[in-house]
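Q&A log
Question type: sequence-to-structure
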Amino acid sequence: MDHASPVSIRVCHLYPKLLSVAGDRGNLFAITRRCAWRGIEASVVEADVGDVPDFTQFDLILLHGGQDCEMRAAASDLKQKAGSLREAIESDAVVLAVCAGYQLLGKCYAPVGAPAITGIGVLDAVTEGGTTRFMSHIAVACDLGPGGQHRLVGFENHSGRTYLGPGTEPLGQVIAGSGNNGQDGTEGARYREVYATYLHGPLLPKNPWLTDQLIFMALRHRYQDVEQADLLTPLDDQAEAAAHAAAFRLACRRERGWRAAMPAGGWWRRLGSRDVPAGTTPPGDMTPQAGTASPAAEAPQAGTASQAASADPPGGGIEPDGEGMAWTSR
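Response status: OK
Response body:
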């Protein structure tokens, strides 16, 4: 390619009004900032309900999370967009799909006590609703090719149990947390350049290596003959590395009493070894519902302390430091 001409990628943010919970819009900010710091232009187009863009004209597509009602509305509208989106995916446009976005790219999602939501079937994956939510910090080991194994950290908050078929690979293996279903140790899904995951947080600011992976593959989609070393100059990622290490420590705390699952209709959980102080009201009045059972006995053990200890963050260990409370809304 001609390095004298401006280098750019074209980004589509799909359903920014419907599907952008848990800070997921931060993924877009991470991509545009890391591009700008390197002199790479990133043009962004939003495509909401009623918009029918030509997805083959984009290099990177973002599809984020939302609750079931918003997901149902998006699924209905996505029928009009499915053909173009499939074509773009088959031509190796890069897609980051988070939570509901992940499920919409699969075959179907069957919530508990509600009609199934049909996805576009790009991913060989089906999702069943569960009676408990997986709510915890999570760490995942990923091997995406050259450069060796990497680690993802984030926060999962989902009641869906996703099961992959033979046509789709997992994004990674759970170190600590629940992942796709709390049983098989997998997290997320990969197909061509689709990167699907349950990790919120948002995901990309704390995982700059994945942000750069998405940017590079988007550049390759547009220019074909690029080399990563030519365009993605190293950045000072001290803040990102510190955030990543802190999130990893939080994920590993579950080995000392974290609750990895909770009743799907409840909002309370206890972290560490301290109960809620007498008289304390959580933000948003998310007080425990009467009769809600503790989910501790139901928490699946997808990761182990020994696994976590084998993946120390650069420049520091992973020993949990202190106890803490956290309140999380849906």
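Response note: The domain at 8-242 is CATH 3.40.50.880 (Rossmann fold).
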